[in-house]
Amino acid sequence: MVKSAADLDVYVVDDDASVRSGLARLMRSAGHRALTFDCGEAFLTQAAQGAVGCVVLDISMPGMNGLQVRERLMRAAVALPVIALSARDDDETRRLARALGVRFFLRKPVDDQALLDAIDWVTGSGEVAPSPAPPR
Q1: What is the mean pLDDT of the chain?
Q2: What are the tens digits of pLDDT across the range 10-34?
Q3: What's the CATH number where 111 sits?
Q4: Which of 27, 51, 102, 127 could bond 32 through an S-S bridge, CB–CB 3.0 to 4.6 Å?
Q5: What percent of the residues of the chain are helix, what percent strand, and what percent coil, each to the nearest 5?
Q6: More confident residue, 128 or 101
Q7: What is the mean pLDDT of residues 58-77?
Q8: If you average pLDDT over residues 66-81, what whole number do you get?
Q9: In whole angstroms, how far apart are CA 113 and each of 59, 62, 82, 96, 135?
Q10: What pTM was estimated for this model as a whole?
Q11: How confident is the model at residue 134 (pLDDT cuts 50, 70, 90)?
Q12: In a domain, 79, yes or no
């Protein structure tokens, strides 16, 4: 479990430079270290066993798509949780993502707070708010 945002690397993998840049700014504003990659192949050369954090992974990329990247991570036993982003939101894509262990699937354009909340949830770095007491 991650103790704080400062201990956390967020690997942003997206072929769109403006999306990578925007997500990197968002990650830094939340106190995370952002490491960006323009394709799945570049990310896979850097993904290491024991890395702390998570992957924010675009599903639709030329060359190796996000689902193929996730599959390669599984085969290599890299245990980074994956949050998928996609402009394409259909049942088949979601089913495939779930089958590959994707922890969250968010539709582009992604809501900044929803993404930050998803990162906190999959990494255990967020504080869990206490449940309100039931009315008496």
Answers
A1: 87
A2: 999 999 999 999 999 999 999 999 9
A3: 3.40.50.2300
A4: 27
A5: 40, 20, 40
A6: 101
A7: 94
A8: 93
A9: 20, 28, 17, 25, 29
A10: 0.86
A11: very low
A12: yes
pLDDT digit string, tens, across residues 29-55:
999 999 999 999 999 988 776 677 999
How many domains, the chain?
1
Confidence of residue 2 (pLDDT cuts 50, 70, 90): very low
* Cβ partners under 8 Å of residue 2, min gap 6: 8, 52, 53, 123, 124, 125
Which of 123, 122, 119 has the alpha carbon at shortest distance from 2?
123
How far lies 99's CA from each of 25, 37, 77, 135, in Å? 30, 24, 16, 40
Q: Is the residue at 131 inside a domain?
A: no
Cβ-count burial 76-95 (b if 16+ within 10 Å, e if not): eebebbbbbbbeeeeeebbe
Residue with tokens 């939101």: 89
- Dihedral pair phi/psi, residue 56, rounded to 5°: -105, 110
Residue 117 belongs to some domain of the structure: yes
**How large is the C-alpha radius of gyration of the chain?**
15
The whole domain housing 86 covers 5-122
